[in-house]
């Protein structure tokens, strides 16, 4: 058994080229049998690239507002208290809405497969309901 405490004093890590806009991620539970837990903070308009999760992912929305969208165009608004499950292999992105930051806790299982950036057209399509 292992207990991972909250903030450990390390500076928040700003994420790079697999995101658009400014995004910070704090490790909550670093790798444990293929499960990684991160708190991820997106500035308004910021989002992940398109990507997949080898086994799946659960997003727990802690604050703010945002979107999650799958490649088939289905988009869902996210707000504090919501939980999203992304099944294994489903191409998707998640991020903040244009007018709000988004803070979610991401429980990611298995490897993440990163793809291309989400275009502004695809981003706007989520806002329009997919
Ligand atoms: Mn994801």
What compounds sit in this structure?
manganese (II) ion
Q: Could you give a short account of the major beta sheet?
A: 8 strands, antiparallel
CATH topology: Jelly Rolls
Order of helices and strands: EEEEEEEEEEEEH
Count of helical regions: 1
CATH class: Mainly Beta
Oligomeric state, counting identical vs distinct chains: single chain
CATH superfamily: Jelly Rolls
Describe it for me?
This protein is mainly beta and 130 residues long. The chain has a single domain (23-122), classed as Jelly Rolls, CATH 2.60.120. Helix content is 6%, strand content 52%. The chain contains one helix and twelve strands, in the order E-E-E-E-E-E-E-E-E-E-E-E-H. It has one helix spanning 120-127; strands at residues 13-14, 19-20, 23-32, 35-42, 47-48, 51-53, 56-70, 75-79, 83-87, 92-96, 102-109, 112-114. The strands form three sheets. Strands 1, 3, 4, 7, 8, 9, 10 and 11 form an eight-stranded antiparallel beta sheet that branches. Strands 2-5 form a two-stranded antiparallel sheet. A hairpin with a 4-residue loop joins strand 7 (56-70) and strand 8 (75-79). It is globular and about 45 Å long. The model has no long low-confidence stretch (mean pLDDT 92). Residues 51, 53, 57, 86, 92, 94 line the site of manganese (II) ion.
């Amino acid at each position: 058994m292992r207990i991972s405490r909250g903030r450990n004093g390390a500076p928040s890590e700003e994420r790079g080229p697999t995101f658009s806009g400014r995004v910070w991620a704090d490790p909550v539970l670093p790798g444990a049998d293929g499960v990684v837990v991160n708190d991820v903070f997106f500035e308004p308009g910021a989002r992940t690239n398109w990507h997949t999760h080898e086994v799946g992912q659960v997003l727990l929305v802690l604050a703010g507002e945002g979107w999650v969208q799958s490649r088939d165009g289905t988009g869902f608004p996210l707000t504090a208290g919501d939980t999203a499950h992304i099944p294994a292999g489903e191409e998707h992105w998640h991020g903040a809405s244009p007018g709000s930051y988004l803070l979610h806790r991401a429980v990611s299982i298995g490897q993440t497969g990163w793809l291309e950036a989400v275009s502004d057209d695809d981003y706007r399509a989520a806002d329009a309901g997919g």
